[in-house]
Amino acid sequence: MSDETNRNPDWDAVTRFRGIPEVDCRWTANHAESMRLVDVREPDEFTGPLGHIEDAELIPLRQLVEAVTDWDRSAPVILVCRSGGRSGRAAVAMEQMGFERVVSMAGGMIDWNECGLPVA
To answer: Which of the ends of the chain has fewer CB neighbours closer than 10 A, N or C?
Structure first.
């Protein structure tokens, strides 16, 4: 992330774990309405037992690189998956494509559910 992005108060909670920009489920819950929220799981997981975050956009990881080609590289994006692995890979890939404000939700929908946050 650029220095300008790091000064933005909304991004103060972003940490890096093994090079992956991450936020926790509570940060996501507090910021999801003001950012693009993308779930990179498969369709059956999106509608499965863990549910999904309301208004999340489903774009399976295998389709993500093609799907984001025309997106604004400066717009903030939160990526979500089951446990944080796929969303972490997606965040790194998007950073390599020039996205400036992209994060993975650490712990994925498992943590979201453990925090007792609402699911659709």
So the answer is: C
Weakly modelled stretches of the chain, pLDDT under 70: 1-10, 12-13
How many alpha carbons fall within 13 Å on the CB side of residue 86? 19
Fold topology of 3-114: Oxidized Rhodanese; domain 1 (3.40.250)
Residue 72 to residues 33, 36, 38: CA-CA distances in angstroms? Answer: 17, 11, 14
pLDDT at position 3, please? 37
CA distance 46 to 57: 10
Residue 100 sits at φ, ψ, to 5 deg, of -95, -30
- Please state the pTM of the whole predicted model: 0.89
Q: How many CB atoms lie within 10 A of CB 98?
A: 9
Residue with tokens 């796929």: 86
Q: What pLDDT, on the 0 to 100 scale, is given for residue 6?
A: 37
